[in-house]
Amino acid sequence: DTIIKSEVIEVETVTKEKPSSFVFNKMSLGEVAESLSKRFNIEIKFSQDKIKNCKLTATFENEKLENIIAVIAETFNLKVDNQADMIILSGDGCD
Hints:
The protein is of the alpha+beta class. The chain contains 2 helices and 5 strands; from the N terminus they run βαββαββ. The strands form 2 sheets. Strands 2-5-4 form a 3-stranded mixed sheet. A two-stranded antiparallel sheet has the order 1-3.
């Protein structure tokens, strides 16, 4: 006889304020934004595609999204525009 076992996994509610740990090793900002978007449930956009090319190497331990974005903005000289459900990063970007 085949036994089918099912488990119920509770999905944690994620908020922008929830701390998280990330390790980025020469990861493009496009990929970084994708990871952060999924984890914090917020859309991260770029004013131009060249910004997605910038490579980030950083480790964030239990940091809030606003702190991670601040470090990224400072590292690549980007401007941050916080909106209700979206963050827009603008600047020169990388080749």
